[in-house]
Write a structure and sequence with these properties.
Blueprint: E1 37-47, E2 53-60, H1 64-68, H2 74-78, H3 83-91, E3 92-95, H4 103-107, H5 111-127, E4 131-135, E5 142-146
Antiparallel strand pairs: 1-2, 2-3, 4-5
Length: 155
């Protein structure tokens, strides 16, 4: 006696699956999204050769390659603190209308803007967000602020 198996064709993509009586309805798998780009506004701003001030920009998440490649850079080998400049130039995708953010651009940032971007890099790549917990100096009320957000006083 020969046994045959019945194959059930896969469901038509245009149709939703129906649960059998007595079974819970099928739940579509939840798609997780990963935030990979973080907008920012520089405290002072990058001043280009024409004198234009650029304050808003975008930083993306760093990859392992972003952290490894600068270690082979001669400028970093000769001066280890230069790692910050090369690393930031790899992950900042835009400052204002400047799309080619290279080490020379990062070198020309004001020290306060460089410190801001270093802190933002640490936050988005270590902690996964740009929020910081702060306290009001008057009432000691604690709240979170988004360091990448808009101008002071904006929500």
């Amino acid at each position: 006696m020969r046994r045959t198996s019945s194959l059930v064709p896969p469901p038509d993509p245009g149709q939703s699956e129906q649960a059998e009586p007595g079974e819970p309805p099928a739940v579509a798998p939840r798609r997780e999204t990963l935030r990979t780009e973080f907008p920012f506004e520089l405290p002072r701003g990058y001043v280009d050769d024409a004198g234009t001030v650029h304050r808003d920009g975008v930083m993306r998440l760093a990859t392992a390659r972003d952290e490894l490649v600068p270690l082979r850079d001669d400028r970093v080998r000769e001066n280890p603190p230069y790692l910050t400049v090369v690393l930031l130039s790899r992950v900042i995708t835009r400052i204002g209308t400047v799309l080619d953010v290279h080490p020379g651009v990062v070198e020309d940032l004001f020290a306060s803007d460089l410190a801001f971007l270093q802190d933002m890099y640490r936050r988005v790549n270590s902690e996964g967000h740009t929020r910081a917990s702060v306290a009001c100096p008057e009432c000691r009320h604690r709240f979170a602020v988004d360091l990448a957000g808009g101008r002071l006083g904006e929500s």
